[in-house]
Amino acid sequence: MRTVAAAAAIVPAAVEEAYEELARRLAEIADLEKVSALLGWDQQTVMPALGAGARAHQRATITRLGHQLFTAVEVGQLLDRLEPWAAALPYDGDEASILRVTRREYEKERRVPADLAAEMSAAATSAHEAWVQARAASDFTLFRPHLEHALELRHRYIACFEPREHVYDLLLEDYEPGMTTADVTAVFDELKAGLVPLIAAISEHTDAVRAGFLHGSFDVERQRQLVVSILDAVGFRPDAWRLDTVVHPFATSSSATDVRITTRYHEDYLPAALFGALHEFGHGLYEAGIPERLERTPAGRLVSLGLHESQSRLWENLVGRGRPFWRRFYGDLQAVFPEQLGSVERELFYRAINRVQPSLIRVEADEATYNLHIVLRFELEQELVTGRLAVDELPEAWNARMRSYLGIEVPDDAQGVLQDPHWCFGFGYFPTYTLGNMISAQLWTRIRSDLPTLDEAVERGDFAPLRAWLRANVHELGSKLTMQEALERIVGERLSPQPYLRYLEAKLGEIYGL
Ligand code: ZN
């Protein structure tokens, strides 16, 4: 791979000087973003509730400073000077990619006033604290003014840009550059066409899977020790990672060697903590795999959330809910919970953790119905943003759609509209989960053909070949390519729901005898 240093010999001195000046500026901006992320991590893990007021000011200040540095006219001038030089460089090379990603983000950010950027940041911090309170009290009215404010800020944000085909496009592209509302709707429709009959067929055979033994009493400290030992086996490095407990799991990083992941423990339900931790491990591994030479640049920022979610869903589901994984770990699990699982055969456990059953909570949903939770949120987000749905109508709209898509009654807001914190931070994130599911299956097909002995390695507890494949093929790219470009490069096709449908049909068809 070409580096700036290696290229220097053929680069005119003025270009080299301009590139170094731009890189220096971008590195400072990236540092501020990481400081802000760390303050966000602190808020969600250890900050006392009353710290939220000051924290909102602190993050707003950092956002404003970063915004001012990034949108400075000098950044535009440096890009203007460097782009003719970069045009002759390989498209996926570091320099050309850093300049291309920087230009894309510069053109977007410079239209947004610094005051608005700072206000959005402060509002997100305050909204998160209100969400924690509202969720604990199961009272949507405590969160409602914050959601209304978030929506109003998004309308001011959208007004900074030329109108798009769909008003939601601008929000979506902040999480998934290159994808439009129409693109997502088309792949979701194709997915639904395969998924709805599959879920219906499974609902005729619910007797095939028992899962009562996953509910009961599971000592939280023992759960935590088990999670730690499994994370150590898959690739958690104690000298470079942290695991903490939170209300809603997430992952973040300060650098490739300072990765923060989280999970939450349910005393009465075993799978939540482990699969939550594996999910966040997938995110963490992605951030740990960003090449050093892209760190502190916009190409090291992982802008495609679809690719990010493909990494977490891959570890959570394709690895973590697979038979080879439990051939390695089921004995350990039984040893930790002998009263609850000692007499449960491994195959019964495998079926139980793959049971398809409409449920209330997205992050704990099975692999098939999970996507209906996302479709519901994708639709509600669009309706909120276009004004077709008012914020005070949201809980009712949520509950009605849960009834119609999943056939279940929502008993309270905590288990309904208040279960996720994402709307504190904006709109447009949710669809990337289902995009991530689709991408994870496209990658998995390729991984299995490149690593024909993967099952045996996983069964031995050897995850190095899988980590190495992901690093070389996915993590190494950073955000140099868009999600579609990355997929074309890695698997030779664009985004498609078909591999994911084939994977679900094969796995669930076997379990349910379809
Ligand atoms: Zn995730």
* Number of DSSP helical runs: 22
Mind telling me the C-alpha Rg? 23 Å
Q: Helix share of residues? A: 55-70%
This entry's quaternary arrangement is: single chain
Q: State the secondary-structure class.
A: mainly alpha
Global outline = globular
Distance between the termini: 49 Å
Mean pLDDT: 95
Order of helices and strands: HHHHHHHHHHEEEHHHHHHHHHHHH
Low-pLDDT stretches are none
What does the main sheet amount to?
3 strands, mixed
Strand ordering within the main sheet? 1-3-2
Ligand set = zinc ion
Q: How many strand units?
A: 3
Percent strand: under 5%
List keywords for this structure.
single chain, 514 residues, mainly alpha, three-stranded mixed β-sheet, 22 helices, binds zinc ion
Task: Write a structural description.
The chain is 63% helix and 3% strand. The chain has 514 residues and is mostly helical. Strands 1-3-2 form a three-stranded mixed beta sheet, with helices on both faces. Helix 12 packs across helix 18 (431-450) and helix 16 runs antiparallel to helix 17 (394-406). The longest helix is centred in the N-terminal third of the chain and has 33 residues, at 13-45. The structure holds zinc ion.
Set out the fold topology:
Layout: H1 4-7, H2 13-45, H3 52-70, H4 73-86, H5 94-109, H6 114-137, H7 140-158, H8 169-175, H9 181-203, H10 220-234, E1 241-245, E2 251-255, E3 258-263, H11 271-288, H12 305-319, H13 323-336, H14 338-341, H15 346-353, H16 370-386, H17 394-406, H18 431-450, H19 454-459, H20 464-473, H21 483-491, H22 498-512
Helix pairs in contact: 2-3, 2-4, 3-6, 4-5, 6-7, 9-22, 10-11, 10-13, 11-12, 12-18, 16-17, 18-22
Bound molecules: zinc ion (ZN).
Zinc ion binds at residues 279, 283, 309, 312.
